[in-house]
What we know:
Blueprint: E1 7-8, H1 27-30, E2 32-33, E3 47-52, H2 67-75, E4 87-93, H3 99-115, E5 119-124, H4 129-140, E6 144-149, H5 168-173, E7 179-187, H6 194-202, E8 206-209, H7 210-215, H8 220-225, E9 229-233, H9 255-267, E10 273-277, H10 288-305, E11 319-324, E12 333-338, E13 344-351, E14 358-365, H11 367-374, H12 380-389
Parallel strand pairs: 2-4, 3-4, 3-5, 5-10, 6-7, 6-9, 7-8, 9-10
Antiparallel strand pairs: 1-4, 11-12, 12-13, 13-14
Helix pairs in contact: 2-10, 3-4, 9-10
Amino acid sequence: MDLSLYFEPVSAASLHFSDVDEMEGRLLKSVLLYDPSASLDISEADIAIIGVPEARNAYRNPSCSLAPDEIRRQFYQLYGWRREVRILDLGNLRVGNTVEDTYSAVAEVIAYLVENKVVPIILGGSNDLAFANYRAYQLMERVANVVSIDARLDLGQESVPIRSDAYVNKMVLRQPNFLLNYANIGYQSYLNSPESLGMMEELYFESYRVGLMRRNLEEVEPIVRNADMVSLDISAVRRPDAPGCPHNSPNGFYGEEICQIAKYVGLSDKLSSFGIYEYDPTLDFNNQTSQLIAQILWYFVEGFVFRQNDGQFKNREDYRQFNISVSGAPDELVFFHSRKSDRWWVLVPMYQKDKDYVQQYYLPCSKRDYDLACEDKISERWWRTYHKVNP
């Protein structure tokens, strides 16, 4: 892929860093800024940052197209990590003549990066770019688990054109369909219609209220550990912590909580793309939101560099296995506990029609799911996944 056809590179000068020498030890000095005139081996990068200044399908937030460089200015002033990580900033995507052209370009670039084992971070732009991110997995013909951190479910209706607050149905209806599961983290009931919540139940999708997640933030970890892609609408953060968004409310995640969630996302061995959307610099106060997003990115990368790579189950000696009989279950519930990371999984049987064998799906879970099984109870996540993979 000729990346120079897709991107406008950024530089220290374009980001208004006047005295680069003062940035010693900061990320600006360690991140590789893409230069089309220099040779590039994309496989040498671990993470690639791509700005997508697209907001034509934004709902009442056209200035979110200005976000990528504002986020970069704050991110590159931060100090790095004790472990080495190779970050490449490809610059800002050249938006297409139409929004559909932009979606296609985003999908092609993300697919190219993921196939080269590079994790893209997408700096939007509007939240409908998550739909373009999903289309990358269609191009690769890879089944995807999608997680959205958002105060709204953004389902939309079939008859309504795609928009930043109405795109999930486009993922569900698009053929061929590679969407295995969709989960929302942090929705607020009063911002969503009962019909939307009912549709989530009918489709066996997952939705978790912000209050439930804040009560026990560790329960977020197995949800994002199961994701191939995660999108973050910054409206999921409460307005006092992130004023640079027209859609957030007085309630939501606190700044330190969203940073912890970002670290969980980065820690996921399965996660292969991450996007942040809906930041409007014209509404920001004293760079508060851009600084928070920069710190969200920092924690995501910190999670990435500390990945445990224990989700492949290559060496069973690294796990403890627990078989538990639970009333109502089709068979024993089988739990695995990693000795390396202290993380948990539970098997979900997948019954194959017209075949005399059963596949097993390793569902990330928490110790709470194991404790419930010991109390002769089955978690809602297990039942939802069971019905999802055994329609």
